[in-house]
Structures are given as C-alpha cells and as structure tokens.
Amino acid sequence: MDVGIFNLMGYRNRGVPTAAIYDQTIAQVKAAEAAGFNIAWFAEHHFSNYCVCPSPLMMLARLAGETSRIKLASGVVIVPLYHPSRLIAEIGMVDSLTHGRLVLGVGSGYQPYEFERFDASLQEAPHRLLEVMAMMEKAFGGETFSHEGEYYSLPQTHIAPRPAGKLPEIWVAGDNPDLHRYAAQRDCVVMVTPRHFTPALLAAARRRFEDIWRAAGKAPEALRFGAMRPFCVTDDKAEAMAFLENARWQIRLSQSLRRKEQEMDGGLLVEKTWEGEPSLEEMGSFMLVGDADTVAARMAAEIRAASPCHYLLQMQIGDLPPAIAMNTIKAWQSAIRPRLEREFGPLDRIGVPVPVAA
Known about the structure:
With about 350 residues, this protein is of the alpha/beta class. The chain has eleven helices and 13 strands. The strands form three sheets. The protein has an eight-stranded parallel barrel, surrounded by seven helices. Strands 5-6 form a two-stranded antiparallel ribbon. A two-stranded antiparallel sheet has the order 10-11. Strand 1 (about 1-5), helix 1 and strand 2 (about 40) form a beta-alpha-beta unit. Helix 2 (about 55-65) runs parallel beside helix 3 and helix 7 (about 200-215) runs parallel beside helix 10 (about 290-305).
C-alpha cells in the first residue's frame, strides 16, 4: 500500500487568484514528494469554483520539471470530453515529459452540468471512453493505426509523441460496470470515492469489484483498488472541525452537480444540503480527521477490512489555510506511517496481489 496527494483545486470565496491556487498546489506536491508520497493526483472539472483544473495533463506537464521521483497522475481525465486524436497525443507527450512517471487515471464523468456545456452526451460517455481507450492501445501498440468505431473514425495515422513504454499505467474511476470489466480485463487499478466512508462500506465495494473480477476469469485476490479520502492530522479540535466543515461544503457541491441540482451565484456554486446528509459530528466519527492516534486507527480499520493498495489523500479543501495541509503532509511521514507499520509491517506489502498457482 502507498499514498498519494489528491488535488481538487477549488475555491470557496470570490477573488482568490487562480495563479495562487496553482502555486499553492505545486508547493504542496513538492512537499508531498519530500515526505515520501508516491503519486500526485489532479482532478478535472469545468465551469465553476468546484475545481480550477480543466486539464490535469497540463498540470502534470508543469510538475514534470518541478519533481523528480513522485508519479504524476490524472485523477481523472474525463475522456469523452476530448477529441481522441488530441488526447492520445497529449498522453504520449506527458508520459515522455515525465520520463514514464505518468499514471493515467480515466473516467467517463458524472456531472450533467459539464456535459451540457460541452454539447456532449453523459449517457454515451462510458461507451465513448472505452472506444477511445481501444484507440489508444492501437496508437501506442504500433507505428501507425486506423480506427472505425461507433463514435470515432480515423484514417491511417501516426501519433508522434510516444510513451516511454507501450502504455502508461492506467487507473479507472466511476461506478459503471462496463468500466470495471475493462479494468479487470487489463489489470487496472479501480478507484472509489468518499461515499465509501466506513470500513464496512469499503469492504462492500471490494466485494463488488471481486465479483466483476471473477466474472472476467480473474482471481479476486488480484484486485487492486484505491480509496480517495479527505485527510487532516491535527491535535487542534477547532482546526479539525473547520476541516470537516470544508469537506462537507465540497461534498455538498459534488452532490448537487451529480444530481443536476446545482444553482449558480455568478461563478460560485450555491452550497446545498443533500438528502441523508450526516452532521459534522457524524462525519467526525468516521473521516480520517483528528489527532495522529485517531487517524491511524481509522486507516488501520479500513486496511484490515478491505486491503486497499493506495490512498488518494486530500489535504487542501475549501478556504482552509495552506499551512494546515502542509502540516498534515509532514504528519503522514512522521506520525501516521510509523503507527501503521507498527501494526502491519512495511506498508508496501499491503494490498499486493496474492500469487495464484497455475
């Protein structure tokens, strides 16, 4: 098991300079690399303060020269919103710029608000994603390729920017079973979101994926999946409560966008409660927020229940001061990892697929 830093890059208040968000994020990624994080993730969203990163691949290209070891990942590229020829070429370019450190996280998207403004169909999105992935496999599998599919057509073509290997490492996000079958067939890692917020829910998600792996003829032990989590290590109860309040704000925006219930105040999404929303106290009882002993114990319970191979940890949320995130990045290395390794041993042995006898 390893950990990554997840960057959504939103803002809560008007007047925050976009450049300041980018600079703050770059500084936190560099700190995460120094603290032993394995991957830096960048989300993609459009048209609101929920996220100011419309192109994770552009952020990865920038970070290629700012970092040397940490893997750089799209979390995720919303594949159906791109023309496949440009997307495939940019993937090859970023993989080369990072010297093979690219982790390509892909998804089909979930926000009707975004798709409407791209004049794209959310219903077609999973099928378009799978077709583009097939095109990418052909593009990087040979010097030239052609394609004639349900949604895209391409004559004999050479994609000039080439990845360091045949394909970059691919991770898959989303709730669509077709995408999970694709992940099983190609041994991709699957990612789950904060909705799987307790050890029991995380274990249930793993069982659901294992069923898909079995149906694909793969050993369920070979399943690898990552869990995205808001993450704050602090002894200050007021600071922890502020983090939880900002995490709730972020989830409220996401829920309204998912359900097509968003309301805009200019460029700002209006914060709305959602049905079944937990109180801050309830959120504080299960989220990875609190002092080092509390956070480590909650992570340990999730590891015992579901054996994730990776955590995508989000430390910068809403209008919280960047210093809180920086302190949490340091706390992972100095306080949380040592506590987990006292219980489990080296973390790189957790979530490793078990070899299956022939």
